[in-house]
Amino acid sequence: MRTLFNWAEQKHCALVAFNISNMEVMKGLTTALNDLDCPAILQVSAGARRYTGADYLRALFDTAQANTKQTLILHLDHGDSFELCKDCIDHGFDSVMIDGSHLPFAENIALTKKVVDYAHAHDVWVEGELGEICGIEDAVNVAHSKYTDPDKAREFVARTGVDSLAVSIGTAHGAYKYAAGSTPKLRYDILKQIHAAIPDTPLVLHGASSVIPEYIATINQFGGAIKNAMGIHERELARTIDDGVRKINIDSDLRLAVTATIRQYFHDQPAVFDPRSYWTAAMKAVTAVAERKLKYYTLRNVKSLGEDSH
Ligand code: G3H
Ligand code: 13P
Ligand code: ZN
């Protein structure tokens, strides 16, 4: 992880961390990494571990690694306890996130430090979080987030020894990031202050899906009901790279691409019932989304994206 972050620092780019929980998404991502000759982080949430199973996920990751010459990092996303982080470290994860952001400051420090002590003894990278990034459910969006305090960020990093820090500057998880009719806003000013306070700590942007309007439209056109979904365009999110963001997390855009593709497929080809048919189409959509993110954030090759309609 350190090597990759150093590489990203030198190239002045951000690594993309994609959430994985099944073979098709994993294969679609691997194709993107091979096509573009680009590394990435693959991360699993506690929910993904429950759904897929730790052993299946491990086997998927190892198989993906065997099918690419790219460096892949296996990372725990939003670890919520020392025990979960320890379990992942014991099972060979390269990196874990301990998310104590909902806890009082002192408790977040104590929990994060406990994970850091164990992880560093096993040569594993630790991402912490300060400030609260909300989202996931439509009733909870960025309006409820608490921005990261730059002074507290300095103290947090000094007292925990954490390797990278997830910050809250106006992104939110899920597809409903902003209230209907509002204008999404990122607090670049706060990000700048955080980066100045902890210039040697790579910053992490959660809730960084753009909620690509074309996929939302397709989902709604073919029977879905995703109303008032909203995100921020990649070109706005990419500006955070100038102020120390070196890891950008993407989950919802992959979910939306898969759902849109399968919904349209069912409509266009109602007689097909072999899941391999529609999953092949969905895998291609995963590859397309992943390539788009890698071009914006890691390769910084925006020109190759061509005309962008949203
Ligand atoms: O930040 C959260 C990720 O999108 C993971 O979501 O807990 O539903 O797997 P999940
Ligand atoms: P999105 O829901 O915006 O994709 O965020 C994913 C994330 O932050 C995973 O930790
Ligand atoms: Zn997250």
**Number of helical stretches of at least 4 residues:** 12
Distance between the termini: 33 Å
Q: Gyration radius, to the nearest Å?
A: 19 Å
Assign an overall shape.
globular
The SSE string, one letter per element, is HEHEHHEHEHEHEHEHHEHH
Largest sheet: 8 strands, parallel, barrel
Bound molecules: glyceraldehyde-3-phosphate, 1,3-dihydroxyacetonephosphate, zinc ion
- Fraction of residues in H or I helices: 40-55%
> What structural category characterises the helix and strand content?
alpha/beta
Largest sheet strand order: 1-2-3-4-5-6-7-8
> Would you report the number of β strands?
8
* Spans where pLDDT lies below 50 across 5 or more residues: none
Mean pLDDT across the residues is: 94
Strand-residue fraction? 5-15%
Descriptive notes:
It contains 12 helices and 8 strands. The mean pLDDT is about 95. It has an 8-stranded parallel β-barrel, surrounded by 8 helices. It is globular. Helix 5 (about 80-90) packs parallel to helix 6 (about 105-120) and helix 7 (about 150-160) runs parallel beside helix 8. The chain is of the alpha/beta class and about 300 residues long. It binds glyceraldehyde-3-phosphate, 1,3-dihydroxyacetonephosphate and zinc ion (ZN). 1,3-dihydroxyacetonephosphate binds near residues 19, 174, 250, 252 and 253.
